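Following up on my earlier message about glutamine. Here are the inputs again, as you asked, copied directly from the submission form:
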Amino acid sequence: MAKYIFITGGVVSSLGKGLTAASIGRLLISRGLSIRMQKLDPYLNVDPGTMSPFQHGEVFVTDDGAETDLDLGHYERFTGQTTSRKSNYTAGRIYWDVLKKERRGDYLGGTVQMIPHITDEIKASIRSLDEEDVDVILCEIGGTVGDIEGLTFLEAIRQIGLEEGPENVCYVHLTYVPFIKAAGEVKTKPSQQSVARLREIGILPNILICRTEVDLGDDVRRKLSLFCNVPQHAVIVEKDVEHSIYELPVVLHAQDVDQLIMRQLQLNPPVADLTEWREMLNRVIYPKGSVKIGVVGKYSELQDAYKSIFEAIEHGALAHAQSVQLVKIPAEELEDGTGLERLDEIDALLVPGGFGGRGVEGKVEAVRLAREKKIPFLGICLGMQCAIIEFARNVAGLTGAQSTEFDKDTPHPVVCLMEEQEHVQNLGGSMRLGASRSTFQPDTLIARSYGAQEVFERHRHRYEVNPGYHAKLEGAGLILSGKDDGGHLVESVELSDHPWFVATQYHPEFKSQPLKPHPLFRDFIGAAIARQSTR
Ligand code: GLN
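Thanks, got it. Here's what our run produced:
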């Protein structure tokens, strides 16, 4: 029987609850425990797959093809464990499942209610992770305590506390302790009120983690302890980290967070072995040099829209003990020419995935410059499709080549929908999703990079390179280095007369981790370093 850690957040959102949960996960893994991680999101979308990155940030894709919250990316990167469809439930999905049961007649005769039917469904979702050999389930509740839509979730985790007993459940509350400049002091009142809301519901936090921009003295911790009913040694200070988010497990460990949890859950595993983690952190904090990586996207101003891409670039750099300066280039600035000179300063260029036509011509232009100026290039998903369009137009002589996503009447639909996507009506969960096999041609850049002929990588797209154009593209010199199992779908392409030009239809960024940088990102950064040294 697994034990449970529930992580709630108070006062404001964007405190880094996902990072805190992931860091606790890392600490438990470092103590040899077997864990599962989960995020419950109280919004009504069935999953975040149909939400804009402006609303929600990146959509993280699991091996089993679920479109999930970006916090699952943190979980995988910090713990080294893969998540699945069971690792993310939204209120929409919970309600949907309950309503399907109601229509089937499963509740026949009964009135279907928030309590117990919705709360039972939430509890069943949490307990679905209680598989054999799992010691601890870490469950993060999205949103902020006090949100109306989060109430059933808090009620469900309160009930689990009652059902499992106090020695099997640990409640961690992440709160914000603001520094008020005009008063010159930190304020504990918002945290007091947030904990008061939790206590009204019947949840008494065992550990209070305080996000803050300044150090908190013992007096502040004493006050928080008193007003929030948490022992003072369980009032943890989580000040903004200095260098990297990967410092967080060490920060929490230094304040005995894992030991506090072990005591609460009456577990007694070995002490945390953070040797490998600290060694990685050392390379982050003391880099030998720095590379400038250009990313041409359309959500450049958003930190979260390309989360896994930015992290994977960091990991790639980490493999060479380098730090990264990201140069975010809005694709539209390449269309009107204003962003062009920024390409001169970079060591390598990445064009990430995306949907819709805005900025596509700018991305195509970026690929052209990377190809012609021999700038190391990594294209991902839409980034690869843009590379196909660029090559078709400018090398293969297919004037007006385009993806049918952006122009249905193009004379050369080099990227198009396959039969199975042509008739899709519902937009939710209907793309080509999740892990599938790519097989590489021997002796290609990509096969050498992975050191393997076959890989399983995650997909999230509808459009494919048009099989009717494979021969023309190859004839003009593009190497279609990777194919799917059927041999009809292009999984990766590369160029031979270029220092490093690789693009993939799948998303390698989802599988990169700080302790295991992804080979493509590692070699992409390697090529950036090589270019830097020749300039
Ligand atoms: N819009 C493209 C497609 O659906 C690319 C998707 C992506 O980059 N994730 O195929």
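One observation from looking it over: The chain has two domains: 3-279, 289-534. Hope that helps, and feel free to reply on this thread.
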